[in-house]
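User: Hi! I'm working on a homework problem where we have to compare a predicted structure to a textbook description. Could you give me the structure for the chain below?
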Amino acid sequence: MPDNAAPDLAALAAIVGHEFSDPALLRRALAHRSWCAETPGERSNERLEFLGDAVLGWVIADIAFHQFDGLAEGLLTDIRKSVVNAIALAEIAEEIGIGPYLLLGKGEASAGGAEKPSILSDAFEAVLGAVYLDGGTESAYAMVKRWVAPRMSTSVDRLDQLDHKTQLQELAARAGRGAPIYNVTSTGPDHAKSFSATVSVDGDVLGEGDGRSKKAAEQSAAAVAAATLS
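Assistant: Happy to help. Predicted structure tokens:
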């Protein structure tokens, strides 16, 4: 991105959802260290990334705590990890369209740095850090709630499906038994299939379950088996 692209930065700020009192903060949030190495006197986005990472962790923990009050601490931690990681944040950065605005060194730019998950995720956190410095906690909270929080519900659904399977695996291990083995069959037409699953440990069938998807059927079977081993 050229240095004089202030209108583009204004457009990016609008997508992010924050009007900067100090646009220089957003520009710094986009400055990768490779660009700074080629541009004497410029500061990279690394300090803003550090700040944004801390803010993101706090906001996600707060939202998860209040939105999913029925979940235990372990699952809350899993939800946080599912949305606060390089892959998830890079996907969000792509949705926002941060990549084309990044300030990259020539080598990094030619190597496709604007599409690298590590660079994109770091830039997202740096932008969040910039929003926090410019607008305070409310603005930072709003950015996370707008761009990151919607993914948490999907994560909860996935965790629900996998939780009983994880529990069963842990129970079997503690009992000194082998890993659970699932067998799934399906019936019905493609548009309305139903699935049935059995799960066995060391050759013993410990649970059976049904569901509208393979994962749901496995979850149901694992829940029965986990109750048997508990």
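For your comparison, note the following. The chain is about 65% helix and 10% strand. The domain at 156-229 is CATH 3.30.160.20 (Double Stranded RNA Binding Domain). Good luck with the assignment!
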